[in-house]
Amino acid sequence: MNKPIKKAPIRDQIYDIIKKNIIEGKYEPGSRLSITALSKELNVSNSPVREALSMLNRDGIIDIYPNSGPSVIKFSERRLAQIAQAILSMLLGAFEICQQTGRMDQLVELLQKTLKAQIDHLEVDNMQEYVRYSISFESAFITCCDNPYITRQYGQIEDLFYMIVLYNHWHIDRSRNHTVMEHQQILSAIISGDYSTAKDLLSAHYNRFQLNETN
């Protein structure tokens, strides 16, 4: 007899809802999150909301200050540089593993697929799907290296990366086409076997990655 499916605790459901709203841009970076307002909106008591916010703080998605309460993280120059540096180091490491383990054909196939989807969604101005596939292009390196430890590390900051990319593309139209162009250049270098240039292009892509406004 199958065991009954257990519902997730209320705090986990609230965590998922608030996290989704933050990642998809409903709450912009730096915006305050009122426990009372969230409790009323979600029709729950303050306690599970407070617990969910504590979990989001642990994940680095919100900040909680003693005198001002919780707020969505702000992407200062320092924080942005640290996130970009962490992601780049993982992508370059994953790229190296793909070369060493003979997974370059698999990588090229996945990069081509995600780049096409990225361009398709850009053409119809579907921003959230465009951003999802833009990130998928870069996470293809992680997927293809097939290393669970790198995958786990990347997963810990992937949501922050999505927030950064979505915010950047909502506010800077020119960055959308620029990102596609850089992805095309990276893919072309990999297809031609010029892995050194591909790594340089990937590094340059992250070195220039910054928000229009910093705090």
Automatic annotation (TrEMBL):
Pfam family, any one: GntR
Positions of the HTH gntR-type domain: 8-75
What are the UniProt keywords, alphabetically?
DNA-binding, Transcription, Transcription regulation
InterPro entries (UniProt xref): GntR_C (IPR011711), TF_FadR/GntR_C (IPR008920), Tscrpt_reg_HTH_GntR (IPR000524), WH-like_DNA-bd_sf (IPR036388), WH_DNA-bd_sf (IPR036390)
Q: Its Gene Ontology molecular function terms? A: DNA binding; DNA-binding transcription factor activity
Q: Which PANTHER family match?
A: TRANSCRIPTIONAL REGULATOR, GNTR FAMILY, UXU OPERON TRANSCRIPTIONAL REGULATOR
* Protein name per UniProt: GntR family transcriptional regulator
This chain's source organism reads Anaerotruncus colihominis
* Higher taxonomy: Bacteria, Bacillati, Bacillota, Clostridia, Eubacteriales
